[in-house]
Amino acid sequence: MSDDTEIEIEELPHLLVVDDSRLMRRAIGKILGKEYRITEAEDGEEAWTILQATESIRVIFSDLSMPKLDGFGLLEKIRNSDNPAINELPVIIITGADDDDETKHKALNNGASDFISKPFESVQLRTRAKTHVRLEQTHKKLNETASELEKQATSDRLTGLSNKKHFDARIVKDVSYAKRHRGELTLMFLEIHDFNRLFLKHGKEIADLILTGVTGICQSCTRNEDTLARVGLAKLAFILPSANRIGAKRLSERIYERINDLSIRSDKTVIPITTNIGIAAIDINNSTSVEDIINLADKHLQIAISQTGNSIVIDDQDTSEANVDEATEIAKDVIRKPEIPALSTLPDLETATQIAGSENAEQLHPYLSALLRKILPLLKMCNVKLELGIDDAILIIEKKIKNT
Predict the structure, then answer these.
(1) pLDDT tens digit string along 40-54?
(2) Dist. CA 66–CA 72, nearest whole Å
(3) CA dihedral sign of residues 9, 10, 11, 14
(4) Containing domain of residue 253, as a range?
């Protein structure tokens, strides 16, 4: 069989025919085989195994009287499945002369989509298959459209993160879960420092790059069970189920470290990006409210902002036994990056790297050639060992620093 033929077969609508009569399965396959891809099962158990392993099936034709698992049992499994791709499938029941109205009513109550009686005509069988394949495809498209609309309604257009509406709903659920299970929950607010000034100075395009860059770093640092949302112009919220203050502190430091390496340029100048984080890490109890947690995290964020950038504010002790309002009076643990001193001599490489990502980057201008001379041997080694292919660039650098 050629590859083209195999592709055509894969693209045909996929039907599952379930009947303990090999003759009946073959008859259906003969009538529908040119227009559909047919998979056969001789009883309900085999059919159920196939359904769990095959996502492409669109319609099921099933007999009622079969060994092991009959048509009623198969219907029950299908309709009770947790997988929408299975529980919403059309199931056409094949009825025989011995099946009375009571049997059909039972099948209908169990979730049958339609009936076809033996002996059936080829036109009747084709009509049933065509109708239900089309209905299934329409239903699938409607579900996809509904899911996309729901996603758009709860997503931020620029960053793709959850929006404030989704955040508000999610934190209520997570706090309720933590209350039931006496668990921990951490809420963390991160805000890009002086974002309005950056917007006015560099424009919307650069501001969007800064926001999406910071967002990407935050996404890469969070777990699947965490919720990351954009809840303000330059403000992100992290809901961290089961996370304590130590984990939240480590996460914050990791985010800071990566944002420090973020390189956004405007007119060939690297823009220093700083952020502030306020954290509420609480052992949830029945008296804890969503508003308490949000207010605490927000107060800590405001304290961090007052520290002029790159600050984390978090409770200095466990608040499991403390009232949330009282927790705001607890001494704060403020983590800040060290101040960068003014340069009077050639800095070492570590200091130079730190300054390059700060607002004091201009201090490096008199020392750039000297710094290049320092790193040139390392750059040459990286070029050879890592096969970077930057031979011409290295020659240009050598020529430039010889003339300065």
Answers:
(1) 999 999 999 999 999
(2) 10
(3) positive
(4) 164-336
